[in-house]
Amino acid sequence: MAQKTMIQAITDAMAVELANDDNVLVFGEDVGKNGGVFRATEGLQAKFGEDRVFDTPLAESGIGGLSIGLALEGFRPVPEIQFFGFILETMDSIGGQMARMRYRMGNTRQMPITIRAPFGGGVHTPEMHSDNFEGLITSFPGIRVVVPSNPYDAKGLLISAIRSNDPVMYLEHMKLYRSFRDEVPDGEYTVPLDQANVTRSGRDVTIVTYGAMVREATKAADELAKANIEAEVIDLRTIAPLDMKTIIASVEKTGRVVVVQEAQRQAGVGNQVISEISQRAILNLQAPIGFVAAPDTPFPFGQAETAWLPNANDIIAEVKKTVNF
Amino acid sequence: MINGKIDFAKIVDTESQEFPEIKVLNEAGEIIAPELDPQLTDEQLVALLSKMVFARTLDQRSTALNRQGRLGFYAPTAGHEASQVASEYAMDPGDFILPRYRDVPELVLHGLPLAKAFLWSRGHQMGNEYPDEFRALPPQIIIGAQYVQAAGIALGLKKRGRKQVAYAYTGDGGTSQGDFYEGINFAGHFKAPAIFVIENNGFAISVPRAEQTAAKTLAQKAVAAGIPGVVVDGMDALAVYQVMASAREWAIAGNGPVLIETLTYRYGPHTLSGDDPKRYRTPEMDQLWLSRDPLIRMRKYLTAKGLWSEEKENQLIDQYKAEIKAAIDEADQAPKQQVSDFLKNTYDVQPQNIQEQLQKFEQREAN
Ligand SMILES: Cc1ncc(C[n+]2csc(CCOP(=O)(O)OP(=O)(O)O)c2C)c(N)n1
Ligand SMILES: [Mg+2]
Q1: Is the ipTM of this complex over 0.90?
Q2: What are the residue numbers of the active site of B?
Q3: d(CA A155, CA A162)
Q4: Would you say B258 and B196 are in contact if contact means Cβ atoms under 8 Å apart?
Q5: B33 and B301 in contact (C-beta within 8 Å)?
């Protein structure tokens, strides 16, 4: 066991799977000698060789198509898209091709591809680097979308993703890369895909969230506890398909829900969660479902990024509104 | 072997014959191709070198300002002065420029107030608020996007009968994007007056040019689009000027686009956000390119003509530093960026969600 940052946990997961399975290939822009612009693939090329860990020419659509082709030849590609904003360049590969390959070929082919990409606000990147486009990917049936919120989950989820025979979009929040450490076991372990995690239990209200907002929600819950409001926090971990069982069990207990996402109100997966809760548990609710999300503009210019992003205070205010309804 | 009668080795050899590198001014500051000398007037030569000195000064100051935390995102330009400044200098203010993130010098020389360039770097929306008459887009972050858009602007210019061009910049890495091929192909098909510049500085972040493509030159990609492709010494301002000015004439005459590959080098890191070139470049490589420096050879050429002196250059540098300081001070005066600004700038007519959110944020911002 060692204390690791999320980025170290991610590197570790790739190293474990590269060692475990010769079919695992890691590639993308600058991932080889340079070890990736965030150093997520640091040391992997030196350790596993240029056949297994390699740079590609600069073209995301190419990276998408290459992954599909390699998967058809029996490999387990783990491509990196340097920043998630550039995912728009690969949309046909993802939504038009890999997500539906199993379906269109009657379950005779599979796409065991794990696309990794850094995303998320709070680090003041230039435009198109931080955008919360995850909701776009969640709308394609056939692909799983995973967003770890801590180093332990990051490693276990990435190993599960690489072993999954379905394509997985694995999103790494940049704000979480180096902001804190966790105990991360050495060697292999998995965290199941499609299972949300109750990271804090409480009786009064359920906060459902994912990614960097798990930290904000936990901060908010600590603050609310001082006012004698006990919040349960659910970290979705996999944002598509959703683990509604865990969410509904909590809602039935607390009778109140606040859904929190960093993405714009009209984006992300919050609306999906809210819709499912309304359909399945509306009679358990003692107040309308609360929703904390960013405003409906494109991802903000850096100068007002902090004011734009939802935070613990927004969550506290929304929870109080729900509790005092 | 039944077949094997096609000589592919020969085919690939013919296809990929080297495109000759156009050079006018050598490293000693001598004209080596008089027939290609753009024959700029003395005044123009001084203006061109002065602008190159401006670009170098801006790079040094921007780097320092970034280190002091007074500037945001910055992609260094030192080494690119001939490629960037001379290509811009050959264009007309009415031509439309589509820059990438590294092309701030061209954008400023094309008319963007320096304070706005600094605001862009800091992530302030005002940096991208351009006057109607300014023929430019803000620096493009998405690699390749500007190439397809340039084809559209050029077709628009053609349809309007304007004697102007659209000119777009990308890097060596950018030529691998689908958008690159689509852009040059569309412009070629529509015979649209576009000039596509590839600033080949040898690396796309850490990835060397040789690992982008099996093609020997990037300029030869023009062949498949049926348009002219040219390789030019990107450290030679006179050669770059010659090629750009000629391409502009060709495009405006209705012949369609030109693809230009300038061979250059970035002395600094990819950006100032943590890139370490020592991971992927050798000191020998840096030295080789420093010896080809675009400013040194222009200085030699102009000094020999009696048009330049160290004293004159120092004066200019002082003047530029003062201009840069004034611009950064001006940028400091920009009003605080508000979320309500973003909300107001998202749609023409505000839909209900925006109206609601605007109310919330305006209230918040008032407190
Ligand atoms: C679509 C897209 N993919 C990836 C990136 C990340 N990125 C920014 S610059 C760069 C390298 C570009 O190299 P090159 O085209 O040679 O231009 P240079 O930076 O050398 O001037 C990369 C990969 C991006 N900005 N946009
Ligand atoms: Mg380059």
Answers
A1: yes
A2: 266, 270, 280
A3: 11
A4: yes
A5: no
